[in-house]
Design brief:
The chain is of the alpha/beta class and about 100 residues long. It is about 30% helix and about 15% strand. InterPro entries: DUF6913.
Length: about 100
Amino acid sequence: MGNYYDEKSVDEQAFSYKDFTLFGKPREKLIQMLSLTPDLIIFTPERLNYFTLFLLQLQSASYSMGFYNEETEPYLDLMLNNEENDIQSGTALLIKYLKQIN
């Protein structure tokens, strides 16, 4: 499963500000996503926004990892500096380190 933030996508796995009520509560689509308990969250937003950060706070996983950012520091177990120029290379590096840990 992979969910991501995209305001223009109609993909079922994409979510946006439209999936929150006016008061910031998750709508049904996000409630279903939050009801799942993943073993791992790989958090790699290219641009951090309040919606993805809020979901990271709400989602409980046994392990979460991503790129270093002061705002995500309290929620991630493993963080790497994002030294790669593109998201795919950076994510591949995250997975490489995860495999070394396990």
